[in-house]
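Q: How would the structure tokens look for this protein?
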Amino acid sequence: MTEYFWFFVVVGGPVILGIVIAYGMARRRRLTAAEKTARDRQTRAGYHDRSDM
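A: Here is the predicted structure in token form.
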């Protein structure tokens, strides 16, 4: 009985983990073009502010 438990842990664990990771990657929301532009603008502004230090 113990052998079956460890078999499930060793084989089933990575399979379940892979499914969870794949699901999370599939559900990740992509940025729209406007959001990308705003992100890039804020990033440039942040680096510009740091150059004054």
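The two ends are 66 Å apart (CA to CA).

The mean pLDDT is 90.

Upvote if useful.
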